[in-house]
């Protein structure tokens, strides 16, 4: 696997729109050791698509769709670095317009750049069928990341 070139990350005060596995507090806790402030939000013109052979979704353009998710705020520089390292190379970090309640604004999100399934991803199906195992894999990934950073 080739290493992705370092990209410029958002500043700590920028919100992150999450629509897939990062919407679950157990996953966030496993990855960054805490659950940041979360606010329900919507993204118009995109859908959380199922990905072939994956438990997690990819956000793609879909004119007549709305994706429900959350805005994560109060992310620190270290949080952004961990989350960015965690995401697959097929994700691009993209600014998008979001609606949070009656407020419109912008947030960053991870959009998918590779093949998707025709079906939408289901947060409910993920929660009942994959969440405990997925969160344990996230925790193991984080432990490996910490061990690697301590040896470098």
UniProtKB/TrEMBL annotation:
CDD domains: GGCT_like (cd06661). This is Putative gamma-glutamylcyclotransferase. The lineage of its organism: Bacteria, Bacillati, Actinomycetota, Actinomycetes, Mycobacteriales. Gene3D superfamilies: Gamma-glutamyl cyclotransferase-like. It comes from Nocardia tengchongensis. The keyword Transferase applies. Keywords: Transferase. InterPro entries: AIG2-like, AIG2-like_dom, GGCT-like, GGCT-like_sf. It comes from the Bacteria. PANTHER family: AIG2-LIKE PROTEIN D. Residues 16-122 form the Gamma-glutamylcyclotransferase AIG2-like domain.
């Amino acid at each position: 696997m080739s290493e992705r070139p370092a990209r410029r990350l958002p500043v700590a005060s920028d919100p992150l729109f999450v629509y897939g596995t990062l919407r679950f507090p157990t996953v966030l806790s496993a990855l960054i050791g805490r659950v940041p402030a979360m606010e329900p939000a919507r993204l118009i013109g995109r859908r959380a698509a199922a990905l072939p052979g994956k438990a997690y979704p990819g956000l793609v353009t879909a004119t007549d769709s709305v994706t429900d998710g959350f805005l994560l705020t109060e992310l620190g520089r270290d949080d952004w670095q961990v989350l960015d390292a965690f995401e697959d190379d097929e994700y691009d970090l993209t600014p998008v317009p979001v609606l949070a309640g009656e407020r419109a604004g912008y947030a960053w999100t991870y959009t998918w750049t590779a093949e998707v399934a025709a079906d939408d991803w289901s947060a409910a199906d993920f929660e009942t069928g994959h969440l405990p195992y997925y969160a344990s894999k996230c925790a193991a990934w984080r432990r490996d990341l910490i061990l690697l950073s301590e040896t470098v």
